[in-house]
Amino acid sequence: MIEALLNFDFMRYSLLSGMLIGFLAPLIGAFIVVRRLSLIADALSHVTLGGISFGMFVLTIFPALTFLNPMWFGILFAIVGALLIENLRSMYSNYQEIAIPIIMSAGIALSAIFISLSDGFNQEIVGLLFGSISAVTQSDLLTIIVIVIIAVAFILIFYKELFILSFDEEYSKVIGIPKWIQFVFIIIVAMVISASMRVVGILLVSALITLPVAIAMRFTKGFKQLIITSIVIGECSVVGGLILSFYMNISPGGVIVVLLVLLLAITMVYQRLKLRSNKGAVIDGNK
């Protein structure tokens, strides 16, 4: 692994990108999960795939535009999808959750159309679906760095407002938190999902956003503690998944998610055993 990092640029790009995504995805995920919008990551990931496949289709028609990264089209589509979700949530105020499957369906449909138009499934599409170590380029890494800077700066500046929005959206309206903060946050979520797809894969990116938070929720109490613990779990799973996938020669996305699922299962089993032992101790004490 160390030799590969020294000799191959794509390995360094993948590891650095993975560490940045392992930090950023759980950070954003903490706010998303608390707002009960976990499925938004799935919807935007499918919209992102539609954008990337559209970019590939454009490049097949205009080969002179090879300097364009299809990832940029994915980010653009994801941002538009995120804004549409927010608009639909306001239109269907009593059934806000319906906005997510509407946009997800549109994303899947666009993906199917543009993948077919750009000569169907190829190795690059498969890498985008499930993640690939060799798929991360220098351009992708630079894009991810820019997104990380934007996202972290926004969260640091508007942490208080995002905290209130996450826990009580109605109260945020009462105290006059500007609606544009919510729109900008959802755009950042779209950008993070687009950035994560190279490492984790579009079909699995939502797991990296939600699973570290789900694990951290089992044993943390405060929101800041939840964020920090989620980030540590996300980093460990991404780095561990990239290392294992390198030696096993398989897609990293699946390995990363399996590690997270195993960790969640271990946490739940441990807590159940601990609860049983505590109950047993109480019964023995009463005797």
TrEMBL record:
<comment type="similarity">
    <text>Belongs to the ABC-3 integral membrane protein family.</text>
</comment>
<feature type="transmembrane region" description="Helical">
    <location>
        <begin position="199"/>
        <end position="219"/>
    </location>
</feature>
<keyword id="KW-0472">Membrane</keyword>
<protein>
    <submittedName>
        <fullName>Metal ABC transporter permease</fullName>
    </submittedName>
</protein>
<feature type="transmembrane region" description="Helical">
    <location>
        <begin position="15"/>
        <end position="34"/>
    </location>
</feature>
<feature type="transmembrane region" description="Helical">
    <location>
        <begin position="46"/>
        <end position="65"/>
    </location>
</feature>
<dbReference type="Pfam" id="PF00950">
    <property type="entry name" value="ABC-3"/>
</dbReference>
<dbReference type="InterPro" id="IPR037294">
    <property type="entry name" value="ABC_BtuC-like"/>
</dbReference>
<feature type="transmembrane region" description="Helical">
    <location>
        <begin position="141"/>
        <end position="159"/>
    </location>
</feature>
<feature type="transmembrane region" description="Helical">
    <location>
        <begin position="71"/>
        <end position="88"/>
    </location>
</feature>
<keyword id="KW-0812">Transmembrane</keyword>
<feature type="transmembrane region" description="Helical">
    <location>
        <begin position="100"/>
        <end position="121"/>
    </location>
</feature>
<dbReference type="InterPro" id="IPR001626">
    <property type="entry name" value="ABC_TroCD"/>
</dbReference>
<feature type="transmembrane region" description="Helical">
    <location>
        <begin position="171"/>
        <end position="193"/>
    </location>
</feature>
<feature type="transmembrane region" description="Helical">
    <location>
        <begin position="226"/>
        <end position="247"/>
    </location>
</feature>
<feature type="transmembrane region" description="Helical">
    <location>
        <begin position="253"/>
        <end position="270"/>
    </location>
</feature>
<keyword id="KW-1133">Transmembrane helix</keyword>
<keyword id="KW-0813">Transport</keyword>
